[in-house]
Every structure is written in C-alpha cells, then in structure tokens.
Amino acid sequence: MSSRKLNVRTENWSEEPFAIARGSTDNFDVVVVELEQDDCRGWGEATPTKHYHESISQTEMLIEDFRIQLENGMTRAELQQTMPNGAARNAVDCALWDLEAKLAGKRVWEFPELLKHFATGIQSAPENVTTVYSLGIDTPEKMGDIARKNAQRPILKIKLTGDGDLERLVAIKTNAPISRLVIDANEGWTPEHYQRFVPEFQKLGVEMIEQPFPADNDSILKTLGRPIPVCADESCHDAADLARLAGLYDIVNIKLDKTGGLTEALRLQAEAESKGFLTMVGCMSSTSLGIAPAFMIAQRAKIVDLDAPLYLYEDRPFPLKYDVSNVFPPSTELWG
Questions:
Q1: Has 302 been annotated as catalytic?
Q2: Rounded to two decimals, what is the model's pTM?
Q3: Catalytic residue, candidates 102, 157, 159, 258
Q4: Which of 102, 157, 173, 255 is an active site residue?
Q5: Of residues 280, 198, 175, 296, the one with CA closest to residue 235
Q6: Which domains does the chain have, with CATH numbers?
Q7: What is the tens place of the pLDDT at every residue in 4-49?
C-alpha cells in the first residue's frame, strides 16, 4: 500500500446566534482531518464539545498521537480498538470512509457494510430525508415569531430549559399549528418540570422529549411514566451505553461526535434497534462536511436532526442541498 499523508487543522465558522439550556453561541470551531493517498484525498470534520470534556487542542493532540499509525495504513477496525470515542475519532473515521470510497472509485453506500444497513438492502443510493428545524431558547414571544416564520416546515425541534417552557410551546403551536413538534431540554428539567409539562405537552401534540434530566441523574425516569417517548442524547454515546438505558428511554440520539465516527454509529443503530429502541440522528454545530456521514444513519432514523448547515452564514463548496427541510444525499465532491 502507498503511504498516506495526514493533515490536521482547525477552522472557525460563524452561525446565527443559537441558545440551548447550557448557553448561547454564534460561532464554533471544528477539527478537520485530511488523509491523502495515491492522489486521492479523504476528509472528515468533528466538533469537540466542552460538555464532554473535549477541546480543540486535546482533539488535535489525540489525532497527532496516532499520526504514525494512520500514515502507515491504520484501518477503521484498528481505529475502533485503539482511539477512544469522541470528536477526534469521528474526524479520522469519516476521513477513512471518504478515502476508501475515493480509492475504490465508489460511493460509500455501495460498500456492503453500508448497503446492508439500508432498510431495503438493495437501494442504489440513500433517499432524501426530512430534518427537523431547531428553535433556540428565547422568550415565548420571540420563539412564537420564529415558529411563524418557519410554519411551513414539517417538524420543529424546540429547545427548552425549564420554567416558562409551557408558555413557549403554546406560542409555538399557535404560530405553527400544522408543524409536528419535538422538544429538547438538554438536561435542564427537574422531575417537577416533567410532571407538570408532560400532560400539557401531550395536548399540544409533542411527539418526543429529548434528554429531560442530566445524564448522571436520569434514573429518575424509572419512576415516571413515558406517555410521550423519551430520547437519550447526553446519556447515550455508543453501543456500550444501551444496557443501562433499557427501561429509561424509548429512543436514542446518535451523533457521530459522540460515537467517534460513522463506523460505531452504524453499530450503535443496529444494536439499539435489536434491543427495541427507536433511533434518532443528531448533530453538533457543523458544516455540510460534518453532516454528510450522518446522512447514512438518517436512512433508518425515526427522527432526523441534521439542520446545522441551515444556520451557517457560509458553508463549504458543494454543500448539502436543502429544500426547505428536505435534505439530499451528499455529492461526491463533498464526501463519500
């Protein structure tokens, strides 16, 4: 095998201001990994998350620790065994997928590993998917106004935080009456919030509640009913977490920055389904490059949350195509 060359860099991207229960941001940093071999280049993107004790410098250093192995031909299987899950492995794993596709002159979905993952097992390309459109935390009036401007979108995902959340949902439902609604508390609720809001949210047609409680205190869900399906996000990183989540959650949110790439994400989705969980695919703030590999997981996900590029002021060349909330498969120029 010809030798590879590894390139690692950091980029900063600007986006529309967006608030969740843990804070607000209008820009974000990503780590980009490029692997070059035989005049082909594969690349991947990851967004380190402070909440998961990650930083740009730590992510870059972890990748650099594997420079020799990667340049000497480390495989994706070997990567899973040696690098911990998280943003660093995500960038490398997705770059390896892209490089393999370029070297083979194929799209990634033509590989047996992915083809068998699709619902039919015979389709020639991924199908378009419908993503949620997320509304960041604000006053009920402002969130209602944003909902009115996006009332044509099929499904809205509402970021919540606790006190005032019922008023927020009422304003959104009033201004976007035909949009489906899912909510994400980002670990911001107390049991009292849950018991107060769930009956009212049922009446408003909410279809899913994502991560109502902190990941280290979610066992309280054993004592609470789940008339609205509850989804694990911060509580679920990879397939090893599934055993603990049984009886607490109905859905797991798969994010490649948590699983450490597409390889583990595929395994997590398959094992989650085998254990009776439904799956959701989500994302951190990212460009189209960070979203493209997750599009493969979206093919079997009940809820698709791949809207991050919609908030960017500027995206990558050959970005993912969005038609309102309809997302199209990535081009070969972008990834895979």
A1: no
A2: 0.95
A3: 159
A4: 255
A5: 280
A6: 5-107 (3.30.390.10), 114-327 (3.20.20.120)
A7: 999 999 999 998 887 776 677 789 999 999 999 999 999 999 999 9
